Amino acid sequence: MQKTAYVYVPTPSTANLTVGLERGLWGWRSATLDRAESRQAVRSLTEGDLLVLGHRGPNSRVAPGGWDGALLRRVIVSEVTRPLFTADDEVWTDDDYPERIGMDVLEDFSPSEGVTLGSDAMEALRLSANKQGAAVLEPGVLEVTRFVESLPPVISGSDTGSISHDGETSAATTVLRRREQAKMRRARFGNATRLTCAICGRVLPSRFVRAAHIKRRSAASAVERLMLANIIPACLMGCDELFEHGHIYVDRTGTIKASPKAEETADLAAVAARLAGQPVSGLTEDQEPFFSWHRRHVAQQS
Fold first, then answer.
1. In CATH, 3-150 is 3.10.100
2. Which helix (H) or strand (E) holds 232?
């Protein structure tokens, strides 16, 4: 069963939080995990579990239950991408924090009026605050699901053009990834009702066009994931899947090419061949590093 770990990040650690989110890492001092069952809790986290970071809350020196209804200025929901490991390379400037986990940020919510979570989640965060940021484990993802369901919509019809290439996920994770897709769509396409597919050039209702990552989301850093240069409009009529799986790629001149992967079947090769030779619509110079990554790592072309 998917688990949720709660970690409180105090205001003086804002700079560390920024670095951790940029690098997709969270870390602890070994002494912090040596206390009570902290190490056991973190060690039990596996890929796909959730890590919730609460930031800028009230005084934690209160009785159990004292944070019921308390407000946090920021809540970050992330998914564990790498279980507990140790490393000594410098990430944070004030200390080593050698015991680390990899994380993928799914939602970073900081409304001006503050936000509260369910009573169990808030108590877990209060305990974490009193344990120098140790992780406090809760079974399941019910509290996170309730929080996600309470979030305001990003835009009307935010699910349009939204599909997942990341396999099976929990309901909470699925909704959060759809929210991320909606944010990217709004930033990249605004409120356009019709979009031009960058690959085939067809003009389609926006619900048939996805905000597709050039460099795969799973391989991109948190910063790269949200860069508009890493996003192209790719239609759901086949172009998104062909590009995602490397059956087609974009060469250095901005021209679409069919890769050897497309030769799996004659029909697949024919579909890719019809797109080959066309220029990518709306190509910009800052997209080439992302297309280069896609050529090498997905299409396996130089």
1. no
2. strand 231-235
